[in-house]
TrEMBL record:
Pfam families, alphabetized: PK_Tyr_Ser-Thr (PF07714), Sel1 (PF08238)
Record carries keyword RNA-binding: no
CDD domains per the UniProt record, alphabetical: MLKL_NTD
GO-annotated biological processes: cell surface receptor signaling pathway
InterPro entries recorded: Adaptor_Cbl_N_dom_sf, Kinase-like_dom_sf, MLKL-like_MCAfunc, Prot_kinase_dom, Sel1-like, Ser-Thr/Tyr_kinase_cat_dom, Ser_Thr_protein_kinase, TPR-like_helical_dom_sf
Coiled-coil spans in chain: 161-192
Organism placement in taxonomy: Eukaryota, Fungi, Fungi incertae sedis, Mucoromycota, Glomeromycotina
Record's keyword annotation contains Transferase: yes
Molecular functions (GO terms): ATP binding; protein kinase activity
Protein kinase domain ranges (all copies): 195-481
GO cellular component, one term: cytoplasm
Record keywords, A-Z: Coiled coil, Kinase, Transferase
Protein name as it appears in the record: Kinase-like protein
Length: 648
């Protein structure tokens, strides 16, 4: 903020860093202080831009934030070029503190955009209102900081802020509509998948696949000519009296099949029932697709346009569901979309699927020639050079998945394998987001429904894909840092939070607490301040302040704070019944957030809550045991003890 009094300049004091001494006598000394900050800012801006490029949803929100930080970076570069002016702002105490605040705000913006840009991260927020509040808070903090730094970024007036606000509201509504379309149980499925994937990473013996007895399978009473398709055989699964497909399979790991068993709970994913042994071979048992795959279907029939719209809409829902559980399919094409008796579709063949945040992408070198027509240009670069094919770098992004989906749509529309030169947009960041595409498909599906008098399928060659038939007419499809009475002393140099944590470990609580206060904008700093208030370190013990700080950090997705805030709520006494209900809901919510972030103590509490029906939560022994077993596998003593007590 501007001050009427002259701002103090750097004194000749010495700034102590853990790597040595820096004497602030010359402009060179000042430059040395700012270089780490400038480097950190540039790195953060690059990371925020990368998040925007790879955004799956809320791309408009990410774009708004990216535009702001990129403009700030340009202004910073211009000012830095004039740093040699010894009378410049860089000598002022308020400017140095504001610059450090700029770095911390960028860290918070990066974390926010990272969360809202992915369906999995977005679900951490309670609702769209929470996202909007967080967005507005960050924008206010950012713009105030820009004013303090005198960055010329073309300040947003009230009209621009209102336009941005409307874009944010639209983006949030699109995401909420998409999640509603996925069904009410998507959160439960995502939770179960997350637990199993974590068990897989830790090579837990608790991961098991459903085993089906061979005598529970029998041949159909009335066999058909297509009951045997190569190695796939139709059987009747007697316990459920349903038709199933039995396929010999040795390439899947059992742990991967456990994930498939949960994914199949989605109405848009081919159901996997378990493993059996037929003819001395390990065999997968899945739902029977009477009409084969989508490629086989369009070779036999022409598919009416109204049905194509519904099919594409349902595939989009399936892809969206996979993103909520953080999985990429890696091989989207009509051959991997299965068609049931009623012509509903299911995404299948997850042999290439991987976690989105896995260290390595699936190596597709053995399938390269088969799937190149659906492969994104940036992914082709990996396989173009024979030497690069053997490497397994993480290059597959959601943009690659959307490109393949686009080529699948082309394939279905023209009912033939696409040409690689007929692809979508070559630039990954310009491809449509999943929420925008889902919104358009829902509109089309509503506008062109499948009516009762519409043919289910048409004779092959009925539709004119090549334009050779006569065309019939159709409808168009923070505080003021100016401190004139003080000069910068060495204690004013901001201590990085990592150094503060190191000081805490050495027993220097005063030095540590100073660092936490200086970096207060960061969730990690808020957690440590809460920890100090809770234990009365340096400051007077204050449980209310500790709880407040833990909650603020928890809402910024700091795992340990989520757990500690929930624990503190357990001892909170409320007289009003409505307040009691809200308190119980908060406890379960924050324990769940912490458990989703792999906090085993939170998993122990949730296991106890669900098994015993505590906090008036409906009993769910299976879910409770799942949490306890995962925590026990990570050597959580409380979970191990409770499982022994339960004889589980």
């Amino acid at each position: 903020m501007a001050s009427k009094n002259p701002d103090p300049v750097l004194s000749n004091s010495t700034a102590a860093f853990n790597t040595g001494q820096v004497t602030l006598n010359t402009i060179t000394d000042i430059v040395n202080i700012y270089i780490p900050l400038i480097g950190a800012v540039k790195l953060l801006v690059g990371e925020i831009y990368q998040i925007y490029e790879n955004a799956e949803c809320n791309k408009e929100i990410c774009k708004i934030m990216t535009n702001r930080v990129k403009a700030a970076e340009c202004s910073m570069d211009m000012i830095v070029r004039n740093m040699n002016d010894e009378e410049g702002d860089f000598r002022k105490k308020s400017y140095y503190l504001a610059f450090k605040r700029f770095e911390n705000i960028l860290i918070n913006i990066k974390d926010f955009t990272k969360d809202v840009s992915k369906l999995k991260g977005y679900k951490r927020f309670l609702n769209a209102k929470d996202v909007k509040i967080k967005y507005e808070k960050l924008v206010d903090e950012f713009e105030n900081c820009m004013n303090d730094l005198n960055f010329a970024i073309g300040a947003y007036n009230a009209i621009n802020r209102e336009k941005d606000s409307q874009k944010v509201d639209k983006a949030l509504e699109d995401v909420n509509q998409l999640l509603r379309n996925l069904g009410e149980n998507v959160n439960e499925i995502a939770r179960d998948v997350g637990i199993i994937k974590a068990q897989i990473i830790n090579q837990s013996s608790a991961v098991r696949v459903e085993k089906i007895k061979e005598n529970d399978l029998e041949n159909p009473t009335f066999p058909k000519h297509n009951d045997v398709r190569g190695s796939v055989v139709k059987k009747i699964y007697k316990p459920l009296r349903i038709e199933v497909a039995c396929k010999p399979e040795s390439k899947y790991h059992e742990t991967e099949l456990a994930v498939l068993g949960i994914l199949g709970q989605s109405p848009h994913i081919l159901r996997f029932y378990g493993l059996t042994t037929l003819n001395n071979q390990q065999t997968m048992v899945t739902a029977w697709a009477e009409n084969g795959n989508l490629k086989e279907l369009y070779h036999k029939y022409d598919i009416p346009w109204t049905r194509k719209i519904q099919i594409i809409r349902d595939i989009c829902r399936g892809i969206s569901f996979l993103r909520t559980v953080n999985i990429f399919h890696h091989d989207l094409r009509c051959e991997n979309i299965f068609v049931l008796q009623n012509l509903s579709i299911k995404i299948g063949n997850f042999r290439c699927a991987r976690k989105a945040d896995a260290d390595h992408s699936t190596n597709l070198k053995d399938l390269y020639t088969n799937i190149i027509s659906w492969m994104a240009p940036e992914l082709m670069e990996k396989y173009k050079d024979i030497n690069k094919r053997e490497k397994n770098e993480k290059v597959y992004t959601f943009n690659c998945e959307m490109f393949s989906f686009g080529m699948l749509m082309w394939e279905l529309c023209y009912e033939k394998v696409p040409y690689d030169t007929w692809a979508w947009i070559q630039s990954p960041d310009l491809r449509i987001s999943i929420t925008e595409l889902s919104h358009k498909l829902e509109e089309l599906a509503g506008k062109y429904p499948i009516t009762h008098d519409t043919a289910q399928l048409l004779p092959d060659k009925e539709l004119d894909f090549d334009g050779k038939k006569d065309l019939a007419p159709t409808d168009s499809l923070y505080p003021d840092f100016d401190d004139p009475d003080e000069i910068i002393e060495e204690e004013d140099i901001i201590v990085p939070i990592e150094e503060g944590i190191r000081l805490h470990g050495k027993g220097d609580r005063d030095g540590a607490f100073k660092s936490f206060k200086q970096n207060f904008e960061l969730p990690l700093a808020k957690f440590w301040m809460g920890y100090y208030y809770l234990n009365g370190y340096v400051v007077e013990k204050d449980s209310d302040m500790a709880m407040k700080l833990f909650k603020e950090a928890a809402d910024d997705n700091h795992t340990e704070s989520q757990y500690r805030y929930a624990v503190m709520l357990l001892s909170k006494k409320e007289d009003d019944e409505a307040a009691k209900v809200k308190n119980r809901q908060e406890i379960v919510r924050y324990f769940t957030l912490a458990a989703d972030n792999k906090n085993t103590n939170a998993m122990y509490y949730l296991g106890d809550i669900y098994i015993n029906g505590k906090l008036k939560v409906p009993k769910n022994e299976q879910l409770g045991l799942t949490y306890l077993r995962f925590a026990a596998n990570e050597n959580n003593k409380n979970a191990i003890s409770l499982l022994k007590k339960l004889s589980k």
